[in-house]
Structure formats: structure tokens, C-alpha cells
Amino acid sequence: MSHRVLHPPRAEPAPAVTVNLHRAAGNWAAKRAGAQALVDWEEWREEARRVRADAVRHLPELIERLEERVRAAGGEVHHAATAEEATAIIVDLCRERGARSVAKAKSMTAEEIGLNEALEQAGVEAVETDMGEYIVQQLGDRPSHILAPAVHLSAAQVAELFSELSGQDFDPEDTAALVAYARGVLRKQFLTADVGITGVNIAVAQTGSLVLVESEGNIRLSASLPRTHIALMGIEKVVRDWAGAAHLMQMLPLASHGRPAAASTSVVTGPARDGDDGPDELHLVLLDAGRSAVRGTDLEEALHCIRCGACLYACPVYRQVGGHAYGTSYSGPIGAVLTPALERSSPETAQLPWMSSLCGACTEVCPVKIPLDEQLVTLRAAAQARDPHRGEAALFEAWARLWSRPAGYRATARTAGKALGPLWRKAARASGDGWTARAPFPFDGWTSTRDARSPAGEPFHERWRKHRG
Amino acid sequence: MGERSLDLVDEWRARWEELDGRAHRIESLEEAQALAREMIGTATVARWEDARLGGIAQAQAQAPEAEVSLLVADVAVADTGQVGWAHGAGRPRGAGVLPSRQVILLSQDAVVASLADALARLGATATSPPSSLVLIAGPSRTADIEQRVIRGVHAPREIDVLVYRGTG
Amino acid sequence: MHVQLFVTCLVDLVYPEVGERTVALLERLGCEVAFPAGQTCCGQPAFNSGHSEPARRVADRFLETFAATSDPVVAPFGSCVHMVRHGYERLYADDPEQLALAREVAGRTHSLPAFVVEVLGREEVGGRYPGEEGTPVAYHHECHMLRGLGEASPPLSLLGGVQGCTVVETERADQCCGFGGTFALKLPQVSTAMADEKLDRAIAAGARAIVSTDVGCLMHLDGRARRRGLDLKVHHLVDLLEPEGSL
């Protein structure tokens, strides 16, 4: 199991979390409606898809160009084939510079490779500077949403945590005071950290520029104040040129927050030059970790993801179970697709594509038009082929043998009642209207929580034959 | 130029104010400087070195301690409501982000229509872009605690943009 | 107009009265309805569970049945139509001949509401609520009809023409009810929690009945409502459009 898979999925409703997720999803849905009214949404989605598809299709060429431009601007570029290589590179960079503390800005990629644990083991203190990530880190918890890491927590939990940490007494209703406390703690970190570590939202191959997008300002500070800036990015984040980047710089906040622009966008091209008082060094760490292998497969479009988090807000299953239930660093629909895609074969990730009713809400909201619901079915087929569940395969084999011929199908209809057990029909008859509280195997899972309608005594096709000849 | 740029300024302003920024339309650079002086008063200021910013701050301080930051913006974007600038000599990064209040002088002529235009104007698309560009859209914010929006996290909580006429 | 009824396996075996009312409605609207006796199933349950090969064999039968004539094919709900239009694209991706056939048939396969409103051009067809006069009714959008086929307004338009009930707006009427085919059996607790949300929202809006088109959704919501003892009836849209319909 890699760092991105933490435990097998636990698909159970989590009512305490659902309350918070409903609120978040409701806010997001309202804002999104406003955002869609601002632009020709469907046209913009198609353009965003095109930009991302171009990038992934030409990935090796664009990464080469990106590297060349970053170096020309005075930055250094490191290639990491695996998560382990990436953490080793970053730990070494910190060690070589005698870094004792790191200001860490929110990065899902860093989460994916388990960077915090690696830094901790190496004796480097890495403090999360994103508000939600800071809270989650202090709790010893894990983020549960791509953009809103603490979305599963209540204000009461945060107030309790801050009260413990500070010795003060925080009121859960005084959100401003909670934020002010964290702000004070984290400012010290920015001002004293030796190294700043960020992710990258978009890397522009044309000029070797890294685009960092945020609401709080901690990314800008982490990339500005410490003397060394380490930027970690999955290779798929590159785009060809500024035309495409500008489009995505608008799509991302529109899709994630319903805003035409993020509160703060930083564009970093190499270390500080020409009187800029920013970092002396810029290190770009390019992470592959399974991405190249997904190119050219029927899951390639999952690499188009711009990490907006919209599919999580839209998913009714995610809202019921919460991000932690997926057991992976990327949760929700994109997590259920990307993690198995990057992981290749693993019994843990095989469960993920089943955490969906295939309702299509994710596909509908994706700003780059990833066909997530289709990809979930593709993954289910791959899982069946690789690790067939014999009982189920046999069942569908028998089903196909019977139902590919009308005679077989009709025979099923006739014997369904008998085959499914006398208890069902008896109970159904007893209730008078064909509903029963106890269905036999393999439908007993249904009646654990729902009544079941029994098959009709006379199917439609028999009625037709009787009345219409 | 006059009318078109007026429309762009209005468009930019509408977006900027929706994002909780504050904006003021001023006739001239001199009047903008006067207004800035009034707004800031005796608060401590971390300011960029720019001729346009002279004579405004009464008390100065380093960025981490200053109460107000005072900058000039290089561009504003009508489509998105953003305000942007490049860092460089005399334009320290900390002054652009640490103080919780921010006052920005912006020439009306620097307002462009699209983000693509703005990026070009900032030099992003040149062969050798500046090492650091910033585009902001209103105050910093977080909704990480039960979705309650709080303004002013690590970057400024209050931002006033003074848009002046003339090419000063 | 000649049409072919694709009754779907679920309606055929569990909700035959929906099939009967569908026929009666189409005939009232002037169609001649044929029921190709060789039909079985569209293959969706196997396909969605990742069993493409068995799905294909059953899909072959579907195509053979409905390619026999070039008449439009009408199904009582959207889910199977979605399978034919989109699922078959993937199922037959490596078989150009079958793919061409699938596209031909898919091009004339419709869900009942879309067929009535868009092909027959009828925005309302009357109808009467088969229960207490004035019952408040909540509409649930079937995922595959709404998002899969992009058909939001036809069912609502037809519902609008029904007498004897009032339609109430519910929060998030477009959200999945949790049936999801085998999902209901594989993740029963999550599936049921989603049903509860849908039912609770309907009740909160004052509804005493829920109307939809996918009989999978109906079985799921009705089964849960009954288990919870809720005062909430669950109907197929055609139960309201053609309440007396029979063969």
C-alpha cells in the first residue's frame, strides 16, 4: 500500500460528518449557480478540457520545455519517479540547508506522498499553514476534502483544540477569534521558517512559470519569506502556454468557489531576480508516481483534473460517508478514479469504484469534463477481470445465458417465484399488495432496511400474450 | 480611450466590490495621494519605493509590524475583478502581504479587459518574466471552520484601491 | 405512428401495470403499439457491475429485437435508454458493425416523457392523480433521465397537466435517491441513508406522494417509505397520466 492509500474504504453513513458536508455542499451549489451565469459555462468547460487534453497528450514534450524554462530562470528541477524518491529529494534539500523548520502550504500532492511524516522522521518541523490543514494537523487527523480539509469538523471541535493548545478559553461561536489565534501562531512560522514548501496548481511550459492559487495568503507567504522555496507538483499539472493557463486560472475558482478569481494568485518564475526580495532558491520537484502509466489508457482523462473539489461537493455518496471513508488522500469521485488508476492493482483500491450509485452528478459538474461515471464503470470492469468475484461472475454468466434468448428469459420469469422461495411469495400474498419485509438471498441485503416488492404473478409479456395475442 | 477605459474601470470595480474589496475613483494622482494620506493618518506604513507613494505615510515600519501596506498596482482586470503587480527592486514582497490593511494606488489606464491582457502587461508572457507576480481579488479569507467566512487570514483583511485619472 | 414498446425487464417482471398504462397512453395519443416478444433486457445491470461480456450477449439480443423494424422504440423510463445510447457506445467500441447497428437503434429509442413531449409534440396529456383529491406530490428526477439524457422538462411538463394533485418543490429534487442498481445491494446502508434524505425532503415540503419514472427508484423509495411507516405514496408518472390504463 502506498502513502496515497491509507486503509480500505469504509462505506458507512457518518451522520455527524454529513451535517457539515451538507452545509458545505449547499453553499457551494448556490455559488456555482452564480458562477455559471457569469460565463458561457459549457463553452468554457470544453475549452478547459481541450487545454488539459493537449497538455496530457503532449506531456513529455511539455515537461521538457517546462524544465528548460525553469532552469533558464535560475530554478532547479528534480524528477521523482515515485513517492519515496520525492520525499527523499525534499528531505535531502532541507537537510543540506540545515533547515529546522518548514512553512508548509496546502498541497494534495504532498499529502499523496506522505511528506509530513517523512519530514517529521528526518527531524524537520513542518507546520501546515493552511487554516484547515493546520487544524487537522494539530488534531493528528487527516484532511477529508481536496480544498476544505477540515470540512468534517465542527466549530466546537476547533474551539476545544485551540483552547487546549493555547490555555485560553475559546468560544465556538467566535470564529474570528479562532482564526486570529491560528493567524498569530502561523505568522511566526512564516517569519522564521528556513524553507517554504508549496504545491503547484498550474505550471506554464511556455515560460517555466508556476501558478499558485489560494484564498488565505499562506501560500504566497510560504513561497516568499523563507530563503528556499520547494514546489512539489504532479507532472500532469503542466499546460502548454499562457492562453491555456489564463483560462484555467478562471475555471478553477469558478468551479471550486463560484468566484471569477481566487483571492490570491502568485506566479513564480525562478528564484528572486532583479531586486525582488523573494527566495534565493527555487526547487521544482516533478512527481510521476504512476501518472505516466495512465497516459494512453482509457483512464487518461482522469489526469486532466485541476483539483477543484467540485465533484466531492456534488457527490451524494461522499456527503453520506465523508472523505475519510475512502481511505485515500484523494477522496470523492476523482479519488475513486485516480487512486486505483495510479495504484494499478491493489485489493484496497479495488473497492473504491463501488462507492458510487453512478448518478452522474460528478461528471455534470467537472469543469474539464472528465467522464467520471464512465471511468468508474471502466474500473469496475478492470477489477472484475483482474480479481473476479466468482459467485458474481457465475451469476451474471448464468443470467446472460438465459437472458440472451427470449425462451430463457421467459423461463426465468415463470420460475422466479418458485426459485426465490415460497416464503417470499407467501409473505407477499399475505400483505395483499405484493410487498414483503423478508426477501430471500441474494436480495436479503435489500430487506435489511427496505421492504421489497415481489415479482408479479403475471409479468407484462404474459398479459400481452393473453390480451393482445 | 476615455470612455472605453471608464467602462472597464466600472466593470472592474463592480467585480472587486463583490469580492469585498473597496474602491475609490479619484480625479488626479494628487487627490489620490491626499485621500490616501487621510485614510492612513498616523498608522504605521510599510510602503514600496515609488515616486507616486511619496508624502503619504506619516509613520513608517517594517512589514511584519506595520499596520498598513501602501503599494501601486501595475494592472487591474475588468473581467475578473483582480488587481495585480510585479515584485522587484523597491517592491518588497512582505510589504505586499503582511499588514492587515492595504492601500493601493492604481492608474485608470492600467485597467485592462481580460486576464490574458493583464498577464501580458505584467510581463508573464515575455521570454523572461519577472520572478514574482501577484494578482489579488479582494481580501484574503477562509471558510474552513463550519463554512463561516472570515476575512483577513494571512493576507490583508481590508483593501482600498484608489483609482486615479491621468498617467501619473 | 407505429411504435415498439421496450417494456424493460424490471417493469415486465415487477411493475407490469406500468407497462400496461404506457401502452394505453401511447394508444390514446394515436400510436399503434407493437410489443416485440423477443425482448429481454438492455444488459445494464451486468455492464454497470463491470461484466461487459455477459452484458454484450444480452445487448445483442436487444439490438436484434429492435432492429427488425425501423419504428421508434419507447421505454417507460430513461435508465435503459441511457444504456442503449451511451453504454452501447462503449460495449461495442471494438465492433464497428454492431456499433453502427447500435447507433441506428439508439437514434430512435426514447424514454416515454421525451417521446410524448418531443416526438408527439404533446406538452400535456391530462391525467388524474389516483388517490385523494389535492394530494401534494413531489417529483423525483431519475438520474439517467435528467443527467444522462438531459431530459429535465418533459416529465415535469406532463406532470403539470395532471388533475387532482398539486406539485410541491422539494430541496434538491435532482439528487440521486440511492438506488443505483447493484449499489443498493453492495452499499445498503449508504443507499438507504440516501433514500431517507429524499423521503425526508419530500415530507418537509409537505408532499404525501412522490412521482418518478425509474421503477428502480420507485422500488427503493417505496420500500423504504413502507419500512418506516411513512405517509408517502410512490407512483410512476404514467400511473397519473393513464390511471385506468390496461391492456
Describe the model.
The complex is a heterotrimer of chains A (469), B (168) and C (247). Chain A has 469 residues and is of the alpha/beta class. In chain A, 52% of the residues lie in helices and 11% in strands. Chain B is α/β, with parallel strands linked by helices. Chain B has a single domain, classed as Rossmann fold (3-Layer(aba) Sandwich), CATH 3.40.50. In chain B, strands 1-12-7-4-2-3 form a six-stranded parallel beta sheet, sandwiched between helices. Chain B has a four-stranded mixed beta sheet with strand order 8-5-6-9, sandwiched between helices. Chain B has a two-stranded antiparallel ribbon with strand order 10-11. The longest helix of chain B has 17 residues. The radius of gyration of chain B is 15 Å and the shape is globular. The model of chain B has no long low-confidence stretch (mean pLDDT 93). In chain C, 50% of the residues lie in helices and 12% in strands. Chain C is built from 13 helices and eight strands. In chain C, helix 7 packs across helix 9. The longest helix of chain C has 17 residues. Chain C is globular and about 50 Å long.
Helical residue percent band of chain C: 40-55%
Radius of gyration of chain A: 26 Å
Helix content of chain A: 40-55%
Multimeric status of the protein: heterotrimer
Poorly predicted regions of chain A: none
Most extensive contact:
A-C, 67 and 65 residues
Radius of gyration of chain C: 18 Å
- Count helical runs of chain C: 13
In terms of DSSP E residues, the strand content of chain A is 5-15%
**How would you write the strand order of the largest sheet of chain A?**
1-10-7-4-2-3
**Please, what is the average pLDDT of chain C?**
97
The beta-strand count of chain A equals: 12
Major beta sheet summary of chain C: 4 strands, parallel
Write down the overall geometry of chain A: elongated
**Main sheet makeup of chain A:** 6 strands, parallel
Taking the alpha carbons of the first and last residues of chain A, their distance comes to 61 Å
Strand order of the biggest β-sheet of chain C: 2-1-3-4
